[in-house]
């Protein structure tokens, strides 16, 4: 229930903010207002209703959105990068929402049970992802680790942090600047499925990589609209 209330609250804030800012500005064209509202509301709706990602990932995309024609420029850039990632990493789930991208890996693809050392296939996946990140340098990346609910909260938090750190370390070894990468461990606090079933627990064990525009790309996008 807490997760649902948080998500509904985030959605309401995104909708209200988008409507107040973009509908209330007389200097914006109808097209600009539409793009702005779509970035604040449409992307949030897609992520929240789909329940494909945790609150931290969804919040990162909502928080980074700037809307307007600049947001539309960023969205087009993200469309291209998302398509490239889908083609390069077929066993990852790529979610395009608002002005960002969420790349989701099942922990079973990346790690053995209860381990934080990357498997060989994981290294191949992250190498492909790193190549895309290097081709699109105008972004910041959050790496978010999640676990299922078995075990203590303290242990699962530590495991999720170690796994996120392992993904970051390998991405850095493949040329992605460490300054672009932030790691977050959430343990079992952001489930996307029922922890009472084997299938649900397998879905909750995951790593989410959130890609959003950095300040430089946002400024470039704003300049394009001038």
Automatic annotation (TrEMBL):
Organism domain of life: Bacteria
Where does the UniProt entry say this protein principally localizes?
membrane
Stretches assigned to the OmpA-like domain: 98-215
Q: Does the keyword Translocase apply?
A: no
Keywords for this protein: Cell outer membrane, Membrane, Signal
Which InterPro entries does this UniProt record tie to the protein? Answer: Bact_OuterMem_StrucFunc (IPR050330), Gly-zipper (IPR039567), OMP_bac (IPR006664), OmpA-like (IPR006665), OmpA-like_sf (IPR036737)
Extent of the signal sequence: 1-23
The record's listing under Pfam families reads: Gly-zipper_Omp (PF13488), OmpA (PF00691)
Claim: Signal is one of the keywords in the record: yes
Please state where this protein is localized. Answer: Cell outer membrane
User: What CDD domains does this protein's entry cite?
Assistant: OmpA_C-like (cd07185)
* Protein name per the record: OmpA family protein
């Amino acid at each position: 229930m807490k997760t649902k209330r948080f998500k509904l609250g985030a959605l309401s804030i995104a909708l209200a903010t988008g409507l107040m800012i973009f509908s209330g500005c007389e200097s914006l064209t109808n097209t600009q207002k539409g793009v702005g509202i779509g970035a604040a509301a449409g992307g949030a709706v897609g992520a929240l209703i789909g329940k494909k990602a945790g609150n931290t990932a969804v919040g990162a995309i909502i928080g980074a959105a700037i809307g307007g024609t600049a947001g539309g420029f960023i969205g087009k850039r993200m469309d291209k990068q998302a398509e490239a990632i889908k083609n390069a990493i077929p066993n990852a789930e790529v979610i395009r929402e608002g002005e960002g991208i969420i790349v989701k890996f099942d922990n079973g693809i990346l790690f053995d049970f209860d381990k934080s050392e990357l498997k060989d296939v994981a290294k191949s996946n992250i190498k492909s992802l790193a190549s895309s990140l290097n081709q699109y340098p105008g972004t910041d990346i959050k790496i978010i680790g999640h676990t299922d609910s078995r075990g203590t909260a303290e242990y699962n938090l530590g495991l999720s942090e170690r796994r996120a750190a392992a993904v970051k370390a390998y991405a850095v070894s493949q040329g992605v600047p460490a300054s672009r990468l932030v790691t977050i461990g959430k343990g079992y606090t952001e489930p996307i499925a029922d922890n009472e079933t084997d299938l649900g627990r397998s879905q909750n064990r995951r790593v989410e990589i959130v890609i959003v525009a950095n300040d430089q790309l946002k400024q470039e996008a704003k300049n394009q609209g001038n």
